[in-house]
Design brief:
This protein is mainly α. It has helices spanning 5-45, 72-84, 93-108, 121-141, 146-167, 173-191, 202-210, 216-247, 249-257, 263-272, 277-295, 297-304, 309-321, 332-335, and strands at 338-343, 349-354. The chain has a two-stranded antiparallel sheet. The termini are far apart.
Amino acid sequence: MRLNLGAVVRRRRWARDVLAATAACALAISALLSVQTSASASELDEYVNLPLVNRNAEHGPGGVHPALPTDLGTLQALVEEARASGRSPESYAALLFQYRLVAATEAAGIDLSSWNPRAGVSANRTNLVKSYRYYEDLQLGHPELQWAGMGGQVGADFGGGLIDFELMADVYSFPNLQQVANSIVSQVTDQVGVQALNQLPAGLRALAAVGRNVTADDLDYALGMILVMQKNIFSDLMPMHQAYVDEGLPALEEMQSAGLFGKDVMDAWRDVASSDSNRIALGNVALLQREQGVIIRDQWDTVRAYKGDVGEAITYASTVAGSPSVAGVVPPRSFRPLEFTTTLADGRTANVTMP
């Protein structure tokens, strides 16, 4: 048998070249995967440790931070990646909140990226209708979500009140209220005496003093802030509701771990999910108290403090003028009317009652 040394050498060279090429390919694939992983990590890094600069809805349209996406699929992938990375929930709190908020707005049929409460009632009418319909549907599908049901019931009143408020920008409307307030103040002064004036509601005194000077711009400011508060309530509570519906208490526990709300809110949700009617009621009351006493408290106080007596007059008028359409609900002016007793100049006792 004759050995062809040339062929052997060629085969060895070929094998060496194949091995070298294979190694080069492996290195290239490894490098490519490394680049892709690095790029993915870099993309996630853009969205962690972001402040929730627009959580209260005051600073323009969109979600809680302008850098965050508003596409639900993108947000879900980023949140899942953040979880898998071992990061603490606090580090991706804004991302998680945006994810839950977009899930809620999509369920309601609202485009979060264009939702601008300061655009006025007409521009926001569709969002108002959709948000309150969403509240109703949540409670109809999940009877324990009583806060959502209450929110849905007041939607028509709230929307109608906003339209009325917009109409009050007419130059004749607010001065008429001022005349009524002046008449009340004058009658109290004439019948009871000047000493009773300080016992009148601060808002009534302010309305009597500056009502004629309230401008359309003043009313537009207040209306814009009320629409901001409406979005603020949605943005705070509806991500919780949607997370509860989608994934139950574990989803809310992740939000609590991220620092998005405290133990009191988590306990309220445990009550809501308890199947115990008394606890369900208590949990929903806690959410209602959060809505009025925490979420919008500072914003309402800001409107009240607007331009001194002007804000006081506007907030008082909007409170006493409203009449709820829900059967059995007492108007605010009648629920807790002002009552005080004073002594007249001739020694008689006078009882004064007013909104």
